[in-house]
Amino acid sequence: MDGDQKMTAADFDALLPRLGRLTVDTVKIARSVLVDGQRPSEAAAQFGTSRQRVNSILKRVEEAAREFPASWKRVDVWLPPELAAQVEEWAQRARADHAGTDSGSSGASA
Description:
mainly alpha, 0% strand
């Protein structure tokens, strides 16, 4: 991903729940490039990090964005074992179907 690729603030904000494992600074770096249009080298200088780290962050964010369709919702509930197994099976099937329809070469991981 390079500095020319951008996303809207709304698209980035919608992606935030998928970036929960990233630090606040990492999210700020990604936003500065993807939303604000900064070049990775400029973001690296601003945040006191390397251009390689910025590019690694952008790759992680891009992977999170491709992992599931934007319209999908995360569901976290407690269920009896038999229902939990059924929901897990549905989730695996949906992820497989999504990966099978992904036209990108790197695809979504299951």
